[in-house]
Design goal:
By secondary structure, this protein is mostly helical. It contains 6 helices and 2 strands, in the order ββαααααα. Helix 3 runs antiparallel to helix 5, helix 4 runs antiparallel to helix 5 and helix 5 packs across helix 6.
Length: about 140
Amino acid sequence: MPHYLLRCGDSGLFCTDSHIKSAYERRPTRRPDVASDRRNPYDYVEIIIIFVPIFLPMLKHFNIDPVLWGTLVFVNLQAAFLSPPVAMSAFYLKGVAPKHVTLNQIFAGMMPYMIIVIVCMVIMYFWPGMTLWLPNYLYGGG
């Protein structure tokens, strides 16, 4: 049997085809009904790296507090984490939920929290003092 340049554990021996085949057969299998390997193409870090340099210079021009804007961005990202079509948290939950739990049930259970997140964003937008009182108190802002 041909040998590969892979070491099998601490034995110092090289792996053979049979070692690789048995390791492949022992690997954990994924449930075919779970979309656990779906990934949002725009995760938080990528969104921040792309959009912050674009919008940050405009905040001063439009007289928007950068702390308020950053807070709104992060709450909005949380809403995106909960809402379809991507809803990464729903797919993570589906991956660990029992088989009888459907994605529709998960989305239905998430909707009250989604409404709370949206209401919080509206409150933060219309009453920015409620969002900024703690940073102003801690850091002595105006």
